[in-house]
Specification:
Blueprint lengths: L11 E5 L4 H12 L3 E6 L20 E4 L5 H7 L5 E4 L6 H6 L1 H22 L4 E7 L22 H20 L2 E7 L2 E2 L12 H10 L4 E4 L5 E2 L2 E2 H13 L7 E3 L6 E2 H12 L4 E4 L3 H4 L11 H7 L7 H15 L9
Parallel strand pairs: 1-2, 1-4, 2-3, 4-5, 5-6, 6-11, 7-10, 8-13
Antiparallel strand pairs: 9-12
Helix pairs in contact: 1-7, 2-4, 4-5, 6-8, 8-11
């Protein structure tokens, strides 16, 4: 179904986590659609914000360096906005286990600050919240649809679920037009690659470019699905644009699921060189690993006309090329 972005032309848009991977990619698309955009980011090093992510649109967006945990800043920032893309979050599963209170404050408490600010100062705003497939935990069946039980395996999953449910509650009780997208393995240019806080695939890309072996944990047989960033941005815009998303939760996903071993082989092939190795799971990662996972995304396909367009080989090829050109802006080449 073709998507008409005319609704965003001239609109006032706030993006939390706006200097991160997804936020900056969304901003680039919104600029092209003629929106007036304010990007909010704390630029705390652990959380993925990077000014280079907007180097090509810097003069066409407003940037506010603020933390979503600051209720006074948020109250000021939400006023007068037509759309709020609520993408700020702590994404590291391991960090959530070693520093659970920080994860709680960012992924749950700060979400209440944002929603309260909207209730008090801008109840007509449309909010799209970036949730995660991690809320499901270890799948009981595949593909995972939205009716699958939620049973997070780590603190991050619990707090993201709370944040998601706050948005749905404020829709039901206060009629705030909010919805949530449960993302799964978003990848592409601009993703964090210097460590695994955002996605393991980023570390793999870095290892390959540096001439190091990709490390595949466990058996390598674990199945996953992936969404290229352009497809995720399309889903976010569709969710914001239509009333059909109000109060709803949608899975993203891809029918092109693949084992981690096959993924490593594909990356090596696309890079025309490199290698991977199967290594034992580190104990801290094995304890919170979810095993096989891939989504049923038919609900968003039916309701909003979204389906992924970019094939995994094409998306990975674009990603590799981007980091070969811009590695200096994403990790220390000497490290």
């Amino acid at each position: 179904m073709p998507f008409d972005g005319e609704i965003f032309s001239g609109s006032d848009v706030l993006v939390t986590g706006g200097l991160g991977f997804i936020g900056s990619s969304l901003a680039r698309r919104l600029v092209a659609l003629g929106a007036k955009i304010t990007l909010v980011d704390s630029l705390i090093p652990e959380y993925g914000g990077n000014l280079f992510n907007i180097h090509d649109i810097r003069d066409r967006v407003a940037v506010n360096i603020a933390d979503v945990r600051d209720p006074h800043a948020i109250a000021s920032l939400v006023k007068g906005r037509n759309f709020l893309f609520n993408l700020a979050g702590q994404t590291s599963h391991l960090d959530s286990m070693t520093d659970p209170l920080t994860d709680l404050n960012i992924n749950a408490a700060a979400q209440l600050h944002i929603l309260e600010a909207c209730r008090l100062h801008n109840p007509d705003v449309k909010i799209v919240f970036a949730s995660t497939r991690q809320v499901y935990g270890r799948p009981q069946y595949l593909p995972v649809d939205e009716k699958h039980p939620v049973d997070p395996v780590d603190v991050n999953g619990i707090n993201k679920l709370a944040g998601e449910w706050y948005h749905l509650l404020y829709h039901r009780v206060y009629k705030i037009r909010a919805c949530a997208l449960r993302l799964t393995n978003t990848y592409g240019p601009g993703m964090r690659v210097k460590d695994a806080r955002q996605t393991f695939l980023g570390v793999w890309v870095r290892q390959l470019i540096e001439g190091k072996p990709i490390q595949v944990f466990g058996s390598g047989g674990q199945q996953r699905d992936f969404n290229f960033i352009d497809d995720v941005v399309d889903a976010l815009l569709r969710a914001a644009a239509g009333a059909a998303s109000d109060g709803q939760v949608f899975n993203l996903g891809n029918n092109e699921h693949i084992s981690l071993r096959e993924l490593a082989e594909l990356l090596v092939r696309l890079n025309r060189g490199g290698r991977y190795e199967i290594v034992p799971f580190p104990a801290d990662r094995e304890a919170i690993d979810i095993g096989d996972y891939y989504s049923d995304f038919s609900k968003i396909q039916t309701a909003l006309g979204w389906s992924p367009k970019i094939s995994l080989p094409d998306g990975l090829a674009q990603t590799l090329e981007y980091y070969k050109q811009h590695r200096a802006h994403y990790w220390d080449s000497a490290s």
